[in-house]
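Help needed: design a sequence for this.
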């Protein structure tokens, strides 16, 4: 008679076992190496972006330093105290003529906008070249209008009204798209215009 009876299936006791050391461990090492490589690629990409941003900031710093040097030259031009005051007055008058009067622009825009237009945002766009005004960097050259309307006709009316403005010109439609919202069709839009000084 048998001393013990085996009730388990023979393959559970030691027949063909899963080759853990041959398959699972190399697979785990492979996945770990791939994760490290992916992380390295991401970090290299971030490093390149950071270097590009640092280069842009350094370039802006140089432009700002040049602008400040130009201002110092303007203030030092006069030989006597009277000449220096005249140079400062000329500079201040020129800056006043060329500055953007944002309060006047906003007031005019509030009058020009048709009733069927809703503005979500209005943003000054910088000139990538950083235009110069007597040695001072004047970077805002355009303004962007973002909003929505009930129809394309209202957007056309807004663009015509902006063309008549004293403060903006060269009005262009960047995009307009119909979107259904709350049972109504709205037209979202983005418009750019060049700023006029004065």
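Sure. Designed sequence:
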């Amino acid at each position: 008679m048998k001393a013990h009876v085996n009730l388990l299936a023979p393959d559970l006791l030691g027949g063909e076992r899963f080759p853990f050391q041959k398959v699972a461990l190399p697979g785990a090492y492979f996945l770990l190496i791939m994760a490290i490589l992916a992380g390295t690629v991401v970090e290299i990409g971030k490093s390149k972006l950071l270097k590009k941003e640092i280069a842009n900031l350094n370039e802006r710093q140089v432009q700002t330093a040049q602008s400040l040097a130009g201002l110092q030259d303007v203030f030092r031009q006069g030989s006597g105290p009277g000449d220096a005051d005249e140079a400062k007055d000329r500079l201040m008058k020129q800056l006043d003529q060329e500055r953007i009067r944002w309060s006047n622009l906003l007031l005019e825009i509030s009058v020009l906008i048709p009733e069927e237009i809703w503005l979500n945002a209005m943003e000054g766009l910088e000139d990538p070249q950083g235009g110069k005004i007597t040695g001072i960097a004047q970077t805002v050259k355009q303004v962007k209008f973002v909003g929505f309307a009930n129809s394309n006709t209202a957007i056309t009316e807004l663009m015509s009204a902006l063309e008549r403005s004293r403060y903006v010109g060269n009005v262009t439609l960047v995009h307009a798209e119909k979107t259904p919202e709350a049972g109504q069709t709205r037209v979202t839009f983005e418009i750019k215009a060049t700023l006029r000084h004065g």
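The chain has five helices and six strands.
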